[in-house]
Design brief:
three-stranded antiparallel β-sheet, 8 helices, 14% strand, 346 residues, alpha+beta
Length: 346
């Protein structure tokens, strides 16, 4: 389904021409752009010579003209994403209803709650187990992760947020992976790689601590690049960055980092408000797709649901300039690179 109907596209062109001619104020509070013609919102054109409007009818040889083009660009972005936000808000109730229908059609299997046994061992769904000594060490390790996340990494993220009003930390209630979920990850790693110590298994977990930074669409691409550099300036090492805006299953930029002093890994996701809402709406579908419980038919319907949600999320301008990065791999990182998507897990 197209984001804009033909009637909406016509209205967009009319509205942008009115902004450009000064007949309406633009979204930035200006009084128009002082240009004679702006067709279809594409007055900005690439050329080898000076910047022009409409292929050369107004040569931008002075600062006022350049400022006018700058205002036009922001008017186009504001108008386009305003329509997209309205469409997203209208679609949300139907998307939530579609998810409820899928839950009813494919009720999930109940999982046994993780628990500590009388002898001090820990057991969980899927035959996961830590012996009493391992469980005691895991409890201490989880406490260390919590302390380091709260006392070291969170203040750094708050400094990055405070450096510029164009970004906001979101979802801090999910900053720490739950203790039982972290123990499940540790147990899985130790079962798959018997030579690992518990601390080594913990070091392979990509997101025991995780953060989300959100930006408005017009500030997104530049904000992501700037904040990646700010994270490096805080002393963190970038392990991997993936630009997933071209995916039909998930929208956003996800990154994995390491605090070199201790080896603790953490995740930073970069979102617009709408892409973050889409991630939260599709999170349980993603979990089911990853599980071994979903049938091929269920998996197809879940992927179709994720596709329906994410096709309504408009990519921010300039997002292609955010490039993927992967640090040189070592053996303990192999499992981190299996998935194209990382999301908050309970």
């Amino acid at each position: 389904m197209p984001l804009f109907s033909e009637a909406q596209r016509v209205a967009n062109r009319i509205g942008l021409r009115a902004v450009a001619k000064g007949e309406e104020p633009n979204a930035l509070g200006g009084d128009g752009l002082g240009l004679d013609r702006v067709e279809d919102g594409d007055g900005l054109r690439r050329c080898d010579g000076p910047a022009t409007v409409d292929g050369g009818t107004a040569v931008l040889a002075d600062p006022e003209r350049r400022a006018a083009i700058h205002r036009l660009h922001h008017a186009i972005v504001d108008h386009t994403y305003g329509v997209a936000r309205d469409g997203w808000a209208r679609a949300l109730p139907g998307l939530h209803a579609a998810w409820e229908q899928l839950v009813e059609k494919y009720p999930g299997r109940a999982r046994a709650a993780p628990r500590t046994q009388p002898d001090g061992s820990w057991v969980a769904d899927g035959n996961r187990r830590l012996n009493p000594e391992q469980n005691s060490e895991a409890c201490k390790a989880c406490k260390d992760v919590s302390d380091e996340g709260k006392q070291v990494i969170l203040p750094a993220m708050q400094r990055i947020e405070a450096a510029d009003p164009d970004r906001k930390l979101a979802g801090l209630e999910h900053m720490l992976k739950g203790e039982d979920r972290l123990k499940e990850k540790i147990a899985d790693e130790m079962a798959a790689k018997a030579w690992l110590t518990l601390r080594q298994a913990l070091d392979t977990v990509a997101d025991p601590v995780r953060f989300t930074l959100t930006y408005t669409p017009d500030r997104y691409a530049g904000g992501v690049r700037t904040d990646v550099e700010r994270l490096k300036e805080e002393g963190f090492e970038l392990i991997q960055l993936k630009n997933l805006w071209a995916s039909d299953q998930y929208k956003g930029v996800n990154s994995q980092w390491c605090r070199t002093e201790t080896g603790l890994r953490f995740e930073v996701q970069f979102h617009t408000p709408e892409s973050r809402e889409a991630k939260e709406l599709t999170h349980k579908a993603y979990e089911r797709i990853r599980s071994s419980q979903a049938s091929p038919a269920e998996r197809r319907e879940l992927e179709d649901f994720q596709r329906r949600v994410n096709e309504l999320v408009l990519a921010p301008p300039g997002v292609d300039e955010v490039k993927d990065f992967r640090r040189g791999r070592d053996d303990r990182e192999d499992h981190l690179l299996r998935d194209n998507r990382r999301v908050y897990e309970p």
